[in-house]
Amino acid sequence: MADTTQNAPAPWRNKWKKLDKAWLAVGIIPLTLLLVAPEKFLPASEIVFGAMSHTGIFIIIAITLVAFVKATGADNLIAKAFQGNQVRMIILAAFMGGMSPFCSCEVIPFIAALLAVGAPLGAVMAFWLASPLMDPAMFTITWGELGLDFAVAKTIAAVSIGMMGGFLTMTFSNTAVFAEPLREKPQVGGCCGTKAPFSAKPVWKFWGDADRRTIFRTTWVDNALFLVKWLLIAYMFEALMVVYDTTAWVGQFLGGEGFGTILIAALIGMPAYLNGFAAVGFISGLMEQGMSNGAAMSFVIAGGVSCIPAAIAVWALVKPRIFAAYLGFALTGALIAGTVWQAVA
Question: TM segments (predicted)?
Fold first, then answer.
């Protein structure tokens, strides 16, 4: 008789896997500060709660907007961007990518369905590049924390980078780099249970449907917890930078108006980017410490495209050379966006 006792995972390991590490960080960071430097705890707490109070109205607007889009099914309109002439597809895909409010697990079945039916890789690339950079919630939070000008500039950058990547992919689609891009024939469906993604018509008066009201409520609560969690982490790091006065370090590496700071910010942002919403508060703190406008834009663009959920969506479906092109477009776009924003701002 086989001994199966060694195969059973320890209960604490299951609990650890299920534990939300971000909420754990929300508790550990202030507790550690209180134990290590109690004199800095109160000033840091005031910074965190002040920032959350300032951003509160934007959080409410953002999560309500996303819940409305989900409940009505308005995100189904995105599929129309991939119909018709390829040039038109790329332009629409870049715009729709900058407005799509769905999570990374929904991106995979959606893109898989498009690739399975032969959607042009150029249009898919345009959507892939723009989608993680901006959405209604991201725009609202960025507006509240970094200002309307920065939010608009990042939106323009997201759409422009999407079109750049899309048109370059279309131009070189017959070369060895972009030939046979898929790892294998993708299957429609995914972790969100989406079997025919974005195929239904929107229902704008969703409150008359009990299921859609449930979607609205669930989406609202889930996004509220998500935003509060990551913004708290971001503002805690911002508070730590302020109370420990990192002005000299930030000014040395990320200050100034030269191209070097923009390049450094992009290279740091690609591996270090945690989450789009966390990055907003983090960048706000860095800018207060001396980070240049161009470096800030470069950081959020390069990091946004290369963040783990966005990158996994690409890696899961296409071959490494396509993934490398995706990252190359992101880095190039980040450097261009940072340079232009530095000159304009």
Answer: 22-41, 47-69, 107-130, 150-173, 220-242, 262-283, 295-317, 323-344
